[in-house]
Amino acid sequence: MNRDSLWNLGVARRTLLQAGGTGLLGLSLLRILRAQEQKPARAGRAKSVVFLYQFGGPSHVDTFDMKPDAPDGVRSKFSQISTSLPGLEICDLLPETAKVMDKVTLVRTVYHNMKNHNSASYYALTGHAPPLDDIRLRDSVELFPAYGSVVDRLAPLDGSMPTFVAYPYVIRDGAVTPGQHASFLGKKHDPLLITEDPNGIDFKLPELSLPSSLSAARLDKRREIQKLIDRQTEATEQAAAMGGLDAYYERTLAMLSTPAVRNAFDLSAEPELLRRKYGRTTYGQGCLLARRLVEAGVKFVNVYFSSSIGGQSTTDGGWDTHGFNNTFMYPILKARHLPLTDHTLPVFLNDLDERGLLDSTLVVWMGEFGRTPKLNSQTSRDHWPQCYTVLLAGGGVKRGYIHGRSDKQGAFPDRDGVPIEDLAATMFSLLGIDPSTEVVDRLNRPLPISSGRPVVSVMA
Length: 460
Known about the structure:
The protein contains 14 helices and 19 strands. With 460 residues, it is an alpha/beta fold. The radius of gyration is 22 Å and the shape is globular. 48% of the residues are buried.
């Protein structure tokens, strides 16, 4: 096996140089090769995953795990309504969502122990615990990659369609939230990141647009390719963090000349009636775009509800609603979050189902944590990772199923707790990827993509 063959297996040049001291057949190199040897993905129930990330942390006890018999000071001030799943009641501000609960699985006992947004979000976006629970946790190539980047490493699409797409923001709580890119896997496995508003009148892909002064013939020259992509993606990271950049160039060039990619992102091809049905909002059109992408074969799509955790605005921001003093979070939940969810999520699930896509598309609706069952002194709810609800639909999970039970106040799992690691393992397993598969970090350590076990009871 020559050096080029080793490089094609994903072994870095730096690794080859380090291994040279022991010989190309030395034990250290053999261990590296064994770790790099990916297990072939088997046929999974899910062909795609749409990860609807609810940045800021929705309150589980005010949405999908209400406790109407809890005492005052814990019980939600919202009322409950019946749903299409007999015996299940959810928030009365989600009437359309109530009609599709027979299509979903609610996992009511997800838990971890990270109480800060960036650390908890990193956990949720990668399935790996961060090194510390601190607002000072910063994005780093030492941390674990996003789910979609792992999928791109282990089960990439053939051809020029991207495996992993993320939009319409780079999310942050002060600093950029870790877990949104390929990290130590190298830029080759970064998502195709779109930061344009899919609800914008001129929504297009600047990353894939050719400047009028640049002809396709000139793009054949490697130097011109590099200049174009460096300029359009502002690729100014340090060389140490740029592993796989050559492959990134080549893949992007292929996309530049592929009509299928442009067509997949062309929301103007959708009937205006359907676009209004999804909602002419950034989030609504983002979900419609996700449907188009999975139709085109994209394997993993991250759709971010908001770019920030939220604040005291009633027109923007994420689910971090405890900034509204003495108002029980009513302003933004009633004005934005719950209506936006109710306008979009059921339409998305029904559209997938009617097109025969839901059974092969795993939809994950989740935030980084839930909210304290007990109201604080400002009549609001604080961060609560000890127990919260994640909604799953399609892609091989049961329809009309509730997994686990929280205690009487929604504070802790009463039975069948699901750590984040198990949720991650479930996603990989449904995609046909063995969760015990290993990848190699920058220190050449073999690491399993998940330390959890699939939650078999949620699978159909």
